[in-house]
TrEMBL record:
Top-rank taxon, per record: Bacteria
PANTHER family the record matches: BLR6218 PROTEIN, OXIDOREDUCTASE WITH IRON-SULFUR SUBUNIT
Organism: Sphingomonas alpina
GO molecular function: 2 iron, 2 sulfur cluster binding; metal ion binding; oxidoreductase activity
Stored InterPro entries: 2Fe-2S-bd, 2Fe-2S-bd_dom_sf, 2Fe-2S_ferredoxin-like_sf, 2Fe-2S_ferredoxin-type, 2Fe2S_fd_BS, Beta-grasp_dom_sf, Diverse_Oxidoreductases
Protein name (Swiss-Prot/TrEMBL): (2Fe-2S)-binding protein
Domain 2Fe-2S ferredoxin-type residue range list: 1-76
Keywords tagged on the record: 2Fe-2S, Iron, Iron-sulfur, Metal-binding, Oxidoreductase
Length: 179
């Protein structure tokens, strides 16, 4: 029996205790924000918060975290207004978006431990990989999130600029090829 808490909800997975947490979250709990990237713990796409630590869920068995508290990107902020989430949006960091949930979780854990990180702290604390190369914007994004978390800056929620989401919904069908 494997019991722990996921996003403030007690869970009991009736799976082999050797099952990687990543697959329990994705397949049994339908929490698909945690991504499968490399499967060997190097890329960080599967990063979640376990008891205040940024952990690669592909390398963590559910049997090894009995009684723990797990937070996924879905549980980080119900309103999607965590300072790290807002800063990533405001700084236009996401490109393909695949690595972003893991990056945000690593940033959130770092900010929980250190509300005033240095550039070196960020580079050491967030070792996730990004194929799109967001690294030049990552440090400033996490610094901005830290300022917002401390109350030194307000980051507006929502799409920072560009096309209105309602307009995008109307335009997309017009951009699709016709038969």
């Amino acid at each position: 029996m494997t019991r722990f808490t996921v996003n403030n909800q007690p869970v009991h997975y009736r799976m082999d205790p050797a099952t990687p947490l990543l697959w329990a979250l994705r397949d049994a709990s339908n929490l698909t924000g945690t991504k499968y990237g490399c499967g060997n713990g190097h890329c960080g796409a599967c990063t979640v918060d376990i008891d205040g630590q940024a952990v690669r869920s592909c390398q963590t068995t559910i049997g090894s975290i009995e009684g723990s508290f797990v937070t996924t990107i879905e549980g980080l902020s119900r309103e999607r207004d965590h300072p790290a989430q807002l800063a990533f949006i405001a700084e236009n960091v996401p490109q393909c978006g695949f690595c972003i949930p893991g990056m945000i979780m690593a940033a959130a854990v770092l900010l929980k431990k250190n509300g005033n990180p240095t550039e070196d702290d960020i580079r050491e604390g967030i070792t996730n990989l990004c194929r799109c190369g967001i690294y030049p914007r990552l440090v400033e994004t996490v610094l901005r999130a830290a300022r917002a978390q401390r109350g030194d800056e307000t980051i507006p929620a929502g799409v920072p600029s560009g096309i209105d989401p309602a307009d995008a919904a109307r335009l997309v069908p017009a951009l699709l090829p016709t038969k």
